[in-house]
């Protein structure tokens, strides 16, 4: 490309130089295009030849120098223009490359964003599908559980019905057997109770008769003593005091019976206690409040039951007579259970 340009420059330079030489020659010879003169032919040719040789060479040299400067300037301008054009082309190429790279990066980023969006969309779709799958599984599980519970309830109701029927049958059978066994035991117990009651009644009768005989003997002995005392008092002239002592003793016996009756009313007596007894000491306040219950002597079951009856009674009937009241404040009772 530079060789073609140099050839063109040389061609243009030669043409320009020829034109300048032609113009210079025309000015030097004084050519008048409008009013030409006709000098003599010999003189004009010689003069023109002499002028042409001297001045044309100088003019040509000056023109050549000017042309060379012009050509150099044009070459520099062309070179600068070419350099600027190449720089512009290079800048444009680099800008195009950068734009292409930027476009490629943008497209890559856009593709990445699209890929990420598609990935998120796919993940969301998978999540929705997973939720739907879990919901379906939960629904099926709930339905299966409901069916299982219904089946279990049906079986439980059926089993309960069968169990209740079996239990009713067994209960009826057991009741029948229990009634038969109870009747047998009741008959046997009645027979044993009657025999035991007869035995205890005989024993109680025997003990009562013995107690009655003992009390009769004591009463007889006491009466004999009282009679002896009365006889002695009669001999000594003190019959009034004996009457008072007898009256006090009778009052003590009366209130003792009332106290035993009060205890008996609160006494729960079992059939096994019949024919047995307990002797127990009781300390009583003047108003009848029970202060102390001593250790019972006799059958252990009878003594425990008698002590409970005494505690339940709480307050005993007491006479207003100070002498009788004082004698009843320390009682030794013989308690015999009675049905």
Per the principal axes of the C-alpha atoms, what is the gross shape?
A: rod-shaped
The helix-strand sequence is HHHEEEHHE
User: Tally the helices: what do you get?
Assistant: 5
Instruction: Please state the average pLDDT score.
Output: 80
Helix content range of the residues, please? Answer: over 70%
Q: List low-confidence stretches.
A: 29-36, 39-49, 232-242
How many domains comprise the coordinates? 3
Global structural class: mainly alpha
Describe the SSE topology.
Layout: H1 2-29, H2 41-236, H3 239-265, E1 278-284, E2 290-293, E3 297-298, H4 300-313, H5 322-328, E4 330-335
Antiparallel strand pairs: 1-2, 1-3, 1-4
Short synopsis of the structure:
With 339 residues, the protein is mostly helical.
Describe, in plain words, how this protein is organized in 3D.
This protein is mainly alpha-helical. It folds into three domains: 60 residues, no CATH class; 108 residues; 102 residues, Fusion Protein Consisting Of Minor Coat Protein, Glycine Rich Linker, Tola, And A His Tag, Chain: A, Domain 2, CATH 3.30.1150.10. The protein has five helices and four strands; from the N terminus they run αααβββααβ. The two termini are 156 Å apart. Helix 2 runs antiparallel to helix 3. A hairpin with a 5-residue loop joins strand 1 and strand 2. Strands 1, 2, 3 and 4 form a four-stranded antiparallel beta sheet that branches.
